[in-house]
Specification:
163 residues; alpha+beta; 7-stranded mixed sheet; 5 helices; globular
């Protein structure tokens, strides 16, 4: 059974930071390298960074499977879109419909907010995720390169799904 709970305390943010460290080291080192992974974890996925993002309007959620924290979501309401900033599940829990439950939750949020679509960015070399998003109805609307400092860039595709 998958539950999705609001993350709104430093304890929650620390749980997410621990999940992020495991997931990102496993998934992203082959794509962007360890130096950029470590930099991004510190800049965007530390408990303090998450707390700052929440103060700026991002919503964070922890996904649990049989009461065990197994992943997390971050979204932000924009003028016309719900920005899906983060959706991650521990590899050992993939294939248990956790991602599908999360996407249903995200779509419901977008509808509740009366938004026109869901928007996300995905690394251009993250081919499995790109295919999964396309299967879910997302369309690639173009490349987006973002300088994140320290000599690193995020080289992404921007994808959109109408609601």
């Amino acid at each position: 059974m998958t539950d999705i709970i609001v993350a709104n305390t430093m304890h929650h943010y620390s749980q997410i930071a621990r999940l992020a460290a495991v997931i990102w080291h496993e998934h992203y080192i082959p794509i962007i390298g360890k130096l950029q992974v470590d930099y991004m974890l510190d800049k965007y996925q530390s408990a303090t960074a998450i707390e700052k993002q929440v103060a700026m309007g991002y919503e964070y959620y922890i996904m649990t499977f049989e009461k065990t924290p197994v992943g997390y979501i971050s979204i932000k309401k924009e003028a016309e879109s719900l920005f899906l900033s983060k959706i991650y599940v521990l590899s050992s829990y993939r294939g248990k419909k956790i991602g599908k439950t999360a996407m249903n939750f995200i779509e419901k949020k977008a509808k509740d907010y009366q938004l026109k679509n869901i928007r996300l960015t995905v690394n251009i070399h993250n081919t499995n995720s790109i295919k999964a998003y396309e299967t879910l109805g997302f369309v690639n609307i173009g490349a987006l390169v973002t300088d994140i400092g320290n000599g690193f860039v995020m080289d992404d595709y921007q994808m959109l799904k109408p609601i």
